[in-house]
Specification:
about 280 residues; six-stranded mixed sheet; 10 helices; globular
Length: about 280
């Protein structure tokens, strides 16, 4: 049968053969996940969606935070790589705009290069995100080295330049004095207990502020014969107000800053902006 010894095989050789088969199976599964995720990401990028990725050392509480923030039931287990693929959910904290938050595989110190290659599909969520939440387990006495390890992996995959918010998790396990000391040392960070759902309002407020910096409010004037750009606007931007003129349409928009160059030639400026303002 499968897994039994062949002629002259030792138990060690049988075990190695089983491991090779398991690795081959997992590599195929990860490749399939990558193809599926790539299709999903392309669809998201066609729309005006702000994307958040949860990153952190393994068992830092990323999946627990995802569940708490989105009222979902992502798989949670206290083991290495319990989250193999990325789990993405909608986060309803910003009115009239879609926000997606993705859990990712837990990082480990000195992550082997072959594992980085294998987990490329899951780390793509990190590369495509607009904001990284670096989740830290304050119960781990070596958490500062863990932060360093995560930063090194983020640098290796080329995303450390992205906005990063440090989120200290499991603060319910700390004394008041320990928590105060941590807040003094990491002044610009957020402190939560995902399990107890404490500190989440402050986290949401910080996320909202970062989203607001990511978007622009502009006024554009679109001629009626520009059907393609009008379609683009309604598919990718938030239309706040609209006024139809004889030969064109004036739109107040909330738009992702990455679309500025596409819309720049239609933007009303100076006196034209004041005259066109419909708010």
């Amino acid at each position: 049968g499968i897994g039994t010894r062949g002629p002259g095989e030792t138990k060690l050789e049988v075990d190695r053969r089983k491991i090779r088969k398991r690795i081959s199976f997992l590599e195929k599964k990860i490749y399939q996940i990558g193809v599926q995720r790539d299709t999903q990401r392309k669809k998201r990028e066609e729309r005006n969606i702000f994307k958040i990725a949860l990153v952190g050392y393994t068992n830092s509480g990323k999946s627990t935070l995802l569940n708490a923030a989105t009222d979902s039931d992502a798989y949670v287990e206290d083991r290495l790589f319990s989250t193999l693929d990325s789990t993405t959910r909608k986060l309803k904290i910003y009115p009239n705009s879609e926000v997606l938050i993705s859990d990712t595989v837990g990082f480990i110190e000195k992550l082997p290069h072959q594992l980085i290659a294998s987990f490329k599909s899951t780390l793509e969520e990190v590369k495509r995100s607009d904001l990284l939440l670096l989740i830290v387990d304050v119960c781990n006495t070596d958490f500062e080295n863990n932060i360093y390890s995560v930063k090194e992996v983020l640098k290796e995959i080329g995303v450390w330049q992205k906005p990063v918010l440090l989120v200290f998790n499991k603060i319910d396990k700390l004394s008041r004095g320990e928590l105060n000391s941590l807040k003094i040392k990491y002044k610009n960070s957020v402190f939560i207990s995902a399990l107890k759902r404490s500190g989440l309002p402050e986290l949401y407020l910080r996320i909202k502020k970062m989203i607001e910096r990511h978007y622009l409010n502009i006024i554009v004037k679109i001629p009626y014969n520009e059907n393609k750009i009008m379609s683009f606007i309604y598919n990718n931007c938030q239309v706040l107000r609209r006024r139809d003129l004889v030969d064109s349409t004036i739109l107040n928009l909330n738009v992702n800053s990455k679309y500025y160059s596409i819309l720049s030639r239609y933007i009303c400026r100076g006196r034209e902006s004041r005259e066109a303002n419909i708010g």
